[in-house]
Design a protein that fits this description.
Layout (H helix, E strand, L loop, with lengths): L1 E9 L5 H16 L4 E8 L7 E7 L2 H8 L4 H8 L3 E9 L14
Antiparallel strand pairs: 1-3, 1-4, 2-3
Helix pairs in contact: 1-3
């Protein structure tokens, strides 16, 4: 599996309601994508970047197919009208810790 993290800040003075509507449409589009395992979103409690979204995909090919699909680029462009400082990281599994570790009880 691979993890795609996108972080960004809001542009000053944006219409939060309008952003929320675009974000909900974008999330719905992501959730329908073949190969998606999970979607998470977080707010930074300490400042910038203000938002992080994380998608987990079965394969890099699944993510690439989605990112080049007909619907996603237009929605991503619409989201970008509300945000700045966009950064995307794509992570693969660790060679040493390929699966999540949790403390024993």
């Amino acid at each position: 599996m691979i993890e795609v993290n996108m972080t960004y800040d809001f542009l000053p003075g944006i219409d939060q309601q309008a952003y929320g509507e675009v974000a909900r449409r974008a999330i719905a589009t992501v959730l329908e994508a073949p190969g998606l395992v999970e979607f998470r979103a977080s707010r930074n409690l300490l400042g910038s970047p203000q938002v992080r979204s994380c998608t987990v995909w079965r394969t890099l090919a699944d993510w690439a197919k989605f990112s080049e699909s007909s619907g996603w680029p237009a929605l991503e462009a619409e989201v970008r009208t509300f945000v700045t400082n966009i950064h995307v990281d794509i992570w693969g599994p660790s060679a040493i810790v390929a699966e999540p570790l949790r403390p024993s009880k």
